[in-house]
Amino acid sequence: MQHESTDTLAYPQPQLFINGQWLDIEGRTTEDIINPATGQVLAQLPHASRTDLDAALMAAQAAFAGWRAAAPLERSRILRAASSLVRERADDIARTMTLEQGKPLREARLEVLAAADTFDWYAEEGRRNYGRVVPGRTLTQRITVLHEPVGVCAAFTPWNFPALTPARKIAGALAAGCTLILKLAEETPGTGLALVRALNDAGLPPGVLNAVFGVPGEVSSYLLDSPVVAKFSFTGSTAVGKLLAQQAAKGLKRATLELGGHAPVIVCADADLDQAVELLVPGKFRNAGQICIAPTRFYVHSAVYDAFVQAFVARTRQLVPGNGLDAGSHLGPLANPRRQDAMRKLIADAVQRGAQVACGGEAIEGPGFFWQPTVLTDVPEDARLMNEEPFGPLALINRVDSVDEAITRANRLPYGLASYAFTQHSGTRMQLMRGLQTGMLGINSLSVSMPEAPFGGVKESGWGSECGIEGLQAYCNIKLISED
User: What is the pTM of this model?
Assistant: First the structure.
């Protein structure tokens, strides 16, 4: 693998953004930002002090009245202008993302454009945040239902999608008329800050959007303890989501939680195997498998099992790991050395219990935190990999004898974020639609994420949805007005 030296690349110095002002590292605690493809330090990240967090809370609270009163058309105009700026700057933002996150440059650019699409969609949907008129019980009674912004919100975003995930939270809150304090992931600050900069350049009033960093538990605890914050949105692990929900419950704060998954894939006997393999291999190993909706637990009908495994492994062997800046790279590094250690332990446990390594299974020597694209077969259900979200380039393929068996095994875990299935039979589609316990289901498709449709899970995979009309209304209070 060839690695381009970060010494020759421009990485923007991260800053805090509070009340319309950019604040640098002077006088603040800092931490290193690491390029996971090389292990090199890109920059120093400033942490927000408690004084900074108080300033962000005050700014968001002070800005709320004006932003709430702004006409939806004006809020739409700013989001649209920011979207245009993000598209104009897409190449630079994508390079920043690849440097700090590792994913291939083409994937990074597509994510940046998806973030711009999210701004555009919410810009329009915010203009259609309709209430309704309910027929009264008498001729003189008028009943009206209004959707009003909930207030100051806090949002906490992860490192694996540093443009799209912040875009969903920013656009939903701002389109509804809320103000926002955004804690971006400390590992990948530059990408999210580029979105913040675009909104600031588009004319967003000071205080409406604030961006901070710090020790995650300390920042989230401080913000959620504040009576100023009325709602929070979090994307991350189920364990952390439960802790935040418990803390927020003390103040009965509204919550949107997009948590862990362990997505099952059901490949039926009548599936188009060529289509399934061509979609599933890139889908599994996109972003080195570090995706909450990544297809992971494959349940393949015994009639096509051998053919599917052979084709899937052959296609996987064609993938080239490498620095995301290299044009020939298909998947980048893991986020950090801890992810490599997790891969080793999970695979060793599965093999000890009887799983077979069909390809991969090892770390890649050299700089950076790379792992071979890995396929395991015959993985017993009691293996840790079948019960813990691996969040890495691992596909687990098992044999089933019926759709009923596949659905039962898919539903076994407490997760219910995304599921996938491949079949040509209409009756089987209905069986899958009714039987799978999941927030999102792709049938002959992996496309379950788009701005116009709700994105979210059930069971321990989350509360509520982002995107779609559901994502906008998540930032609204419902008010009933009865007149006589």
Answer: 0.95
